[in-house]
């Protein structure tokens, strides 16, 4: 039997990009031989094994044939006679279809090195169109390698368009879509994922709420970039630049969904877009079955982002109620994430990318102030429901003092 390193590790090694996992393909072996050598079988669909010590994945070389709808509609054939070239041709991109043997010899039957040099994400064969998941994978690779100058090849984009139109994308499970999307969101150029999905028509199918933002205008005084879709992508870029968490990035992505629902006659103003956004944000989160904390932050950012922008001028009582709705006493980390997302919205605007956002520090300070006031510090004669009232009173007072100190500082 022969063993080759394949997939991402070969690609990233040639690119000088860091990689974290190694996948191997084994040619000329049977499952029985693998088991006899101590490999552990995994998965019921594919003949894949784990190395007894390194735990790296070793898959028997296989061919595949489309037999049904969607991601699972494949039949596999593995046998000791399946060649390396046959295994590589079923892979998605030429840059993912190279193999390296023990001696360091590179096998590149489909032009992967050339496409690496030309910075092209190009499909290996027309069988590409058999698996709709590849549309998401390619968009994710486009996001990951954007800084290196990679683009989707024209012919590949054509196939992605066909796939998007065919209705096959609907066969993807929400878990699969969320898995690819959440990985893409953590790339430094996450916006490129959504741009590529939009360019091939997949955004409309998978995230119609986001697609609907494109072409919707905003007031140029606040949004020199005007278009809501462009603003959303610019805000997401800010979240990547801040290296913020997945929850923050996702909340930023969804913060303005309500703007697609503004009545035409009100444009380019978007009064009430925070309220209007709650339903589409809920729908996206439920459809993708995102974790509860992810959904809660997305809803909070959608609903309250204007309040954060206005923080410096809010009355102390209003600021307290905002903090309370954000669950400041139990979830300070959510308030921090909320502030980060609002800052991305503020800077995700053409020419304003580096503007100051003093609201961030102000709301953080406000959070510290209200959290530092605790029941045990109250006089002992305060009892029962009075405790709660007294705490609120003290917190609002402290926020008043914070506001005065801030305003004083502004005048110096
Ligand atoms: P990453 O760095 O994200 O792990 P990768 O290229 O290694 O990227 P994997 O998902 O680990 O991606 O898959 C390993 C290899 O298997 C890929 O390089 C590709 O050759 C092949 N592959 C994985 N999924 C598909 C698919 N849906 N269609 C075709 N080939 C695929
Ligand atoms: Mg991999």
Give the end-to-end Cα distance, rounded to a whole number of Å: 78 Å
Mean pLDDT, nearest integer? 95
**Number of strand segments:** 11
User: What composes the largest sheet?
Assistant: 7 strands, mixed
What structural class do you assign from the helix and strand content? alpha+beta
Helix content: 40-55%
Can you list the strand order of the major beta sheet?
3-4-5-2-1-8-9
Query: What are the segments in which pLDDT stays under 50 over at least 5 consecutive residues?
Result: none
Radius of gyration: 26 Å
Overall morphology: elongated
CATH class of the domain at 1-111: Alpha Beta
The proportion of residues in beta strands is 5-15%
Determine the oligomeric state from the structure: single chain
Would you give an account of this structure?
The protein is elongated and about 85 Å long. The protein has a domain at 1-111: Beta Polymerase, domain 2 (2-Layer Sandwich). The protein is built from 18 helices and 11 strands. The strands form 3 sheets. A 7-stranded mixed beta sheet has the order 3-4-5-2-1-8-9. Strands 6-7 form a two-stranded antiparallel sheet. The protein is α+β, with helices and mostly antiparallel strands and 412 residues long. The relative contact order is 0.06. The protein binds adenosine-5'-triphosphate and magnesium ion. The site of magnesium ion (MG) has 4 residues, from loops.
């Amino acid at each position: 039997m022969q063993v080759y390193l394949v997939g991402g590790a070969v690609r990233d090694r040639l690119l000088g990009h860091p990689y974290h996992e190694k996948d191997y393909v084994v040619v000329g072996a049977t499952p029985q031989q693998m088991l006899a050598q101590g490999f552990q079988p995994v998965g019921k669909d594919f003949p894949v094994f784990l190395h007894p010590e390194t735990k790296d994945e070793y898959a028997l070389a296989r061919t595949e044939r489309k037999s049904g709808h969607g991601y699972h509609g494949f039949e596999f054939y593995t046998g000791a006679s399946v060649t390396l070239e046959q295994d590589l041709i079923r892979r998605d991109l030429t840059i993912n279809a190279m193999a390296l043997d023990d001696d360091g010899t590179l096998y590149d039957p489909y032009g992967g090195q050339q496409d690496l040099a030309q910075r092209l994400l190009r499909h290996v064969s027309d069988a590409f169109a058999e698996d709709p998941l590849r549309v998401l994978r390619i968009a994710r690779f486009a996001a990951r390698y954007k800084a290196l100058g990679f683009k989707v090849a024209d012919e590949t984009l054509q196939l992605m368009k066909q796939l998007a139109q065919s209705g096959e994308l609907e066969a993807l499970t929400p878990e699969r879509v969320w898995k690819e999307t959440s990985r893409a969101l953590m790339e430094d150029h996450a916006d490129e994922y959504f741009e590529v999905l939009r360019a091939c028509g997949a955004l409309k199918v998978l995230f119609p709420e986001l697609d609907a933002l494109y072409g919707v205008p905003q007031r140029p005084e606040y949004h020199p970039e005007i278009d809501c879709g462009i603003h959303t992508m610019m805000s997401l870029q800010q979240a990547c630049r801040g290296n913020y968490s997945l929850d923050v990035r996702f909340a930023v992505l969804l913060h303005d969904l309500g703007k697609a629902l503004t009545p035409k006659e009100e444009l380019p103003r978007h009064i009430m877009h925070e309220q209007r956004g709650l339903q589409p944000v809920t729908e996206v989160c439920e459809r993708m079955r995102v974790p509860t904390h992810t959904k809660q932050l997305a809803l909070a950012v959608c609903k309250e982002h204007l309040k954060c922008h206005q923080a410096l001028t809010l009355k102390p009582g209003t600021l307290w109620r905002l903090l309370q709705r954000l669950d400041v006493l139990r979830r300070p980390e959510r308030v921090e994430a909320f502030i980060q997302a609002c800052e991305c919205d503020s800077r995700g605007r053409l020419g304003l990318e580096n503007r100051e956002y003093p609201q961030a520090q102000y709301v953080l300070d406000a959070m510290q102030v209200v959290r530092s006031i605790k029941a045990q510090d109250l006089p002992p004669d305060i009892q029962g429901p009075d405790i709660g009232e007294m705490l609120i009173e003290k917190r609002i007072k402290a926020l008043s003092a914070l506001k005065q100190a801030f305003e004083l500082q502004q005048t110096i």
